[in-house]
Amino acid sequence: MSHYKRLLYACAVTAAVTVLLSILPLTDSRMKQAKGDISVFHPVPIKRLSAGVIVDSMLGLHLELDVKRVDWKGSVLSVDLSAEHYGNAVEEWMSDLQRLLEFAFVHTDNVSRVLVRFVTPMQPLNDEEIPVNRLLAAVDVRRSDTWLSTELSNLSAAEPFTDEIWRQRLRLSISQL
């Protein structure tokens, strides 16, 4: 009979521990303050750009223009942005360029140069040709550019195609169509 008493005692202790463990989180003050879901993963700010985080970095920028190509070599970031859906809407071009430059030069510490090409797809003449992108404009910005510390926030409102100062700051090259 003592064997059954020990087994019954072990079951009672197990049930008591289970009830206490299920009540314990309800007494925690942090759990009472949380009104919704709790994040399991917390975003970590990217301080150094690398091939392992470049895709997440580009997605995190939420650019209006489509990213067609990204290349990371040494400390140079090269990005092709497609203006297919926006045409010559300079506001979107400059807004995306500002986000890209802020990411590269403010939030990371290992990017020394950003090369951005604005492209649009060319229609192939026949079905056998592979579609290619036509270059509309290109920008070359370097971390050493002094205007970044004072004028970067004004870039989204810039008119680099008509303003010579912005054209020089961005080292803007425009293709002949």
Q: What spatial order of strands do you see in the largest sheet?
A: 1-2-3-4-5
H/E element sequence = HHHEEHEEHHE
Shape: elongated
Q: What structural class should be given to the helix and strand makeup?
A: alpha+beta
Q: What count of domains describes the coordinates?
A: 2
What is the CA-atom radius of gyration, in angstroms? 28 Å
Beta-strand content bin? 15-25%
Topology, number of strands? 5
> Biggest β-sheet: count, sense, barrel?
5 strands, mixed
Oligomer: single chain
Count of alpha/pi helices: 6
Overall mean pLDDT:
84
State the end-to-end CA separation.
98 Å
Helix content: 25-40%
- Uncertain segments are none
Keywords: Membrane, Transmembrane, Transmembrane helix
Protein name: DUF4390 domain-containing protein
Walk me through the topology.
Layout: H1 2-27, H2 29-33, H3 54-60, E1 66-73, E2 76-82, H4 90-107, E3 113-121, E4 133-142, H5 148-151, H6 164-170, E5 173-174
Parallel strand pairs: 2-3
Antiparallel strand pairs: 1-2, 3-4, 4-5
